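pasting input
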Amino acid sequence: MTVEPERLRLPRALVAREIGHRVIAWLRANSALLLILPTLVFLGCFLVAPYVSMLVMSFRNPSTTSVFAPGYTFANYGRALSDPYYLEVLAETIAFGLVTTAVCAIIGYPVAYHLARTQSRLKGFLYVCVLSPLLVGVVVRCYGWIILLANNGLINNAVKKLGLFPGGLKLMYNAFGVGVGLVHVFLPFMILPILSAIQSIDPALEEAAQSLGASRTRTVLRVVMPLSLPGIQAGAILVFVLTISAYVIPVLLGALKVKIMPTLVVQLLIDAFLWPFGAALAFILAASGAVVVYIFIRVTGHLMKGVV
Amino acid sequence: MTRLTIDGLTKRFGEVTAVDDLSLEIAEGELVSLLGPSGCGKTTTLRSIAGFVQPDAGAILFDGADITALAPERRNIGMVFQNYALFPHMTVRENLRFGLEMRRIGRQEITNRIDNVLDIIQLTGLEDRYPRQLSGGQQQRVALARALVIEPRVLLLDEPLANLDAKLREEMRFFIRSLQKRVGITTVYVTHDQSEAMVISDRIVVMFDGRIRQVGDATQIYSHPVDREVADFIGLSNCIDGRVKSQTDDGRYTVETPLGDIRCRSALTLPVGASATIVVRPESIRLERNQSGDGNVNSILGTVLDRFFLGNMAGYRVVCTDDRVIQVREEPWHASAVGDEVWCVFASDLAWIIRQ
């Protein structure tokens, strides 16, 4: 009887060894997968899982006594899409995103062009200047803007002292103030992709355009701009997506007087405790943003036919 | 047609003087090559003519009118770049149209001119292709056409054949030359390839260190280089140092060298006793069994060190009595073998005194 365990142990050890060999062989063959495994696990836990849970939440039955009631429904989406108020806020959010993106592009493009072509020794310093909005925390940055833009802030005091606008200017707690704050911090996301796109354009192309009789402006409009479209596209998508999902700046500089989707969603989730409905609104916003981005990619892709 | 004058052009980049007081007159319809090693200032000179480089001193004149202060887009030049610089987001037709649109030329005229130039560069049928869909040679021709279709006053070419393979490069030389003659446009051609310059140019300007070293047609530059650097840059050469012994009435000099007295010709006037360098081209030398009896023919004794077959000729390296190696290009069937004692024979007309 003492032999029995020995007999059992031997094949078990063999099986274990066999499995070990197979695992090692598989890992050897797919060693690259092993490298991204930590990332996959991380994203799965902290990105995919919350999204899925939100998605499920958006189909839950609402409840007044708990987070949600049993059962599933499309009513949350129906309610959001049939109420003109929410559709209006959605449209304003998208419009706000488009305007902010356009302003960033118009301000950012000349900066990117200059940085891409400058021979200055200050180039490194200029890079830091471009990145400077990202070097300051969002709250500090917003309070900086409040000091400038508030009703009795620096600008208004100066304007009143000069007697230009006795009533003062409304610079904050409206779309303008939020726009200023967003453009400020999202500008680097516009400039950097455009900068790298322009850097990859052969300067000889600009010289060729000039030799053919094009002024500086026309050279930029006809040659540099079309060839840097991939950079503009990337920058615009980044800024647009960041803008329509921005929360802290609209709250601090808009004080909930600017109705946009992210603040509304948070209100519904935290204040009204309407988790299923809030989740549905969040997904409607994300889907609308995705549709806008898709249309934008299609349109710009058509313009970039010869570029890429 | 335009006469191009470069007057005392100087350009410095920091400590480096890229172009140093360069003056040159290019006649109407003439094709002049700027030839020299990289960094000799030839490209800077070209870019100054185009207006991309603002000179520190000197002037560029078209038909006597100073255009130095004019922006590139106002100079009416046609330029072909080394990498062609075709607009990648435009088709061939759009590339050709670009310069015409900038000149606000009528639609009908634009179409006519583009059709005409497409015909000249033999690319009819490819006008709706994008540059990346064309071969290197086709891109090159589009670049030429784009520069010419605007009917510029001066055509500038910056190493236009450098990116083509050897066979195509040969063809394009003749294509560019015949096109330039047909259009009759004043042209400046920058290259570091001496054979390219020799094939294509009316005159060659050899540049070193931002200065013009020699100006002349291919024959002059090759047969009568002014100094050792030019001689070495344009083809293979044998240089022999010596001292002037005497001058004869027919203008020939006798120079005393370690290899014996050499009779030669010179553009320089040298006193007896002056040091002189003689240049002899490898193909000017014949290998003979016996010394020549003619007083106007030089003979140098040596031993064949190497023989190599080059197809159209046979290359020899002959080591002389002072261990100097002389390069010789003989007929391909020439029979001297390694180890043979030979006489390197060359006429005094083919030996040339250069500045030291």
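fyi The interface with chain B takes residues 202, 204-205, 207-215, 218, 222-223, 226-227, 304-307 of chain A (CB under 8 Å).
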